[in-house]
Design goal:
Layout lengths: L17 E8 L4 E8 L5 E5 L2 E2 L9 H9 L6 H4 L3 H10 L3 H4 L3 E5 L5 H8 L3 E6 L3 H9 L5 E5 L12 E6 L9 H6 L5 E11 L10 H9 L4 H23 L5 H4 L16 H16 L9 H10 L3 E8 L1 E7 L1
Helix pairs in contact: 1-6, 9-11
Length: 326
C-alpha cells in the first residue's frame, strides 16, 4: 500500500480515520501492517501490499479465482487491441483530459482491465474489489505510481465521504446481493460535481431465452473448480457448434445463442487462441456467480434520480449504462 492512500481511507464500520501500526514498509510501499480505527476497536490487515477490509471467504470467491487465472486476458496491453479502452470511454463519456491527476474509484476492478485505461490517462486510481482479484490487479500494475489497490466491500466502502472526482463500476453491480443498495453506496464517496458511471446486464424479454439463465440454477451450486474444469473441456466444442450455427443464412445469429457459450467471432478482433480464452472466461463468468441480477433502463434511471444526480443519461453501450453528475 502506498502511504498516500491512508489519507482517504476510513474504517468501514465506524468511519473513523485509520492509524498505521506494525508497519513493514519500504520508502514507497507498505507490504504488511495493521490499520487500526482511532478508538482501537477495529483492525484491518495490509497483506501483500493490499489493505483488506473483507472476510477471506465471501460470495465473490469465483471472481477471485477467475481473475487470477485470466489475469491478463482482457488487458489491452496484453491482447494488442483497444477492446477495454473502447468500452470504457464509450460507457463513461468522459475525456482523458478531465480525469488526469484526479482521484478515480474503480469499483469491482477485477484484474484491472479498466484501471489500466484510467491510469494511462493520468488518473490516480483506487482499484477496489471484494475478491482476491485485487492480487491480480496489484501484480499487473504495482509499478505504476498512481495505482492504489484495496480489497473492500461495496456495501461498506472504506473511504472518506466526497473523496473521488470520478467513480465507475462496470460489469459489477448485477453480481452483488442487492444491486440498488450497491449503487446507493457510490454517490456518497463522490465529490460535488463529480461524475459517476455504472452498467448492468439488461433485463428484457429476450434475456429470458438466454441459456445461461436456464442453467445457472444448477451451475452456480457446483464447486467453482469443478465447474471451471468442466468448462475447459466443453467450451472448445460448444464454441465450434456456435460458430457453425452462426453461419446459417438469416437465422444464424439468432439460433447460435441457444448454445451456452460466449462467442465473440465477428464481434471482437481476436485471434483464434484469444477467442477461445475470452470464450472460456466469459462462459465461466455467466455460470459461476452466486448473484446475477439484470436491470431495466427504467430502474437504472430511477436509481440515479433517487440519488439526486444530475445530467442523467441511460443508454446502451454494449451493456445498459447509467451515468450522471453529483
Amino acid at each position: 500500500m502506498k502511504s498516500e492512500l491512508i489519507k482517504i481511507l476510513r474504517c468501514p464500520v465506524s468511519k473513523q480515520k485509520l492509524i498505521l501500526e506494525q508497519s513493514n514498509a519500504s520508502d514507497f510501499e507498505i507490504e504488511s501492517a495493521w490499520l487500526v480505527s482511532q478508538d482501537g476497536k477495529y483492525r484491518y490487515p495490509i497483506q501483500k501490499f493490499v489493505p483488506r477490509f473483507v472476510p477471506k471467504k465471501n460470495y465473490a470467491d469465483n471472481f477471485g479465482m477467475q481473475w487470477n487465472y485470466f489475469s491478463k486476458t482482457q488487458l489491452d496491453s496484453y491482447s494488442g487491441h483497444s477492446i477495454s479502452s473502447n468500452r470504457f470511454w464509450k460507457a463513461t463519456g468522459w475525456k482523458e483530459s478531465e480525469i488526469k491527476d484526479k482521484w478515480v474509484l474503480d469499483v469491482g476492478c477485477g484484474s484491472g482491465r479498466f484501471a489500466e485505461i484510467a491510469l494511462s490517462a493520468g488518473a490516480k486510481v483506487v482499484a477496489l474489489d471484494y475478491s482476491t482479484a485485487v492480487d491480480a490487479c496489484y501484480n499487473n500494475f504495482h509499478n505504476h505510481p498512481n495505482l492504489h489497490v484495496v480489497q473492500g466491500d461495496i456495501f461498506e466502502l472504506p473511504f472518506d465521504s466526497e473523496t473521488f472526482s470520478f467513480v465507475y463500476s462496470l460489469g459489477v453491480l448485477q453480481h452483488t446481493p442487492d444491486p440498488e443498495k450497491a449503487f446507493n453506496s457510490l454517490p456518497p464517496v463522490l465529490q460535488k460535481e463529480g461524475k459517476i458511471c455504472v452498467d448492468y446486464y439488461e433485463k428484457s424479454w429476450k434475456s429470458l431465452f438466454l441459456p445461461k439463465y436456464w442453467l445457472r440454477t444448477l451451475t452456480k451450486r457446483l464447486p467453482k473448480e469443478t465447474l471451471f474444469t468442466l468448462l475447459q473441456k466443453v467450451t472448445p466444442f460448444l464454441l465450434s457448434v456456435s460458430r457453425l450455427l452462426g453461419k446459417l443464412p438469416v437465422i444464424g445469429n439468432t439460433i447460435k445463442k441457444v448454445i451456452p457459450v460466449a462467442n465473440y467471432y465477428g464481434i471482437l478482433p481476436l485471434n483464434k487462441q484469444q477467442q477461445l480464452e475470452w470464450s472460456l472466461l466469459d462462459t465461466f463468468d455467466w455460470f459461476s456467480p452466486e448473484h446475477d441480477h439484470p436491470q431495466t433502463s427504467k430502474i437504472a434511471r430511477l436509481w440515479m434520480e433517487k440519488a439526486k444526480l444530475n445530467d442523467i443519461e441511460v443508454l446502451k453501450a454494449g451493456h445498459l449504462v447509467a451515468r450522471g453528475r453529483k
